[in-house]
Protein: SHOCT domain-containing protein
Amino acid sequence: MLKASCITKDGYLICGKDANRLDPKRPANTYRVPIKLSNFISSHTASEIENLLGIPSTVPYKEHPDLYKSKLSKVTEKLDSIADGAGKKADTLQAAIDEINKGEQEKLDVIKQQLKDANVENLFGTKKEIKALPDIIDIDGGEKILYAANAFIETHSILAVCTNKRVIFLDHGLIYGSKSTNIPLDMINGVSYSKGLMLGSISVTNGAITTQIENMQPYPAKKMAETIKQAAADFKQTSAQSNSSNDLLQLRELKQLLDDGVITEEEFTAKKKQILEI
Structure:
């Protein structure tokens, strides 16, 4: 380590190890400089010290104190700049995390409000599933919860949700994460409800697949079955109306092409049959 005691008469710094070479009795690998030797160095110039060392392969470290302080100041500024940059990056990262958390909380608030609007009351044991809903329900795409109910499979609970687009059966475990079954409303061709001595169950059929959820409270089970039936009917009706409107629009466009002479009567008739599926 360089010390102030190794400053020469003309203001240069000498490495403590090199300074100790001036005294043959001093250990070769020490950096500590005794007072007597430091006084000797301070009474001679750097050139005189180098001449006394007399070893061509050894160049003593020397630098003017003011320049040394300037370099140290630059290093300090660089370190401060790095620390400041790291601090700004940390602030930016934290701001991004806060923004994400805020967005997730806002979505969760929307989910909870939708559940409230749907008169969903008892969702015992489904806290984890509800917290997972913001990542599942497409709020930005207009998806809305129409009804929800809890059920139990063996020793754990699941959450059944009916939206204006699909039916979701969600099981959010601590170890394996979320497991969900999604059935689009337009794929549903059967919904049934049954009641046992104490509990109820629902079955949802889409094609050749039937999904059955048991161990539900009777009222929520019945309400869920009714909601799914109505939601599926409404969705299919809306889709049919939309398809009908699209068909009419295509026919108008084809008729305009026929009137403009772009297509022939035969081409118009063939395309019309294709659109109307006749």
User: Anything to note?
Assistant: The first helix runs from residue 16 to 20.
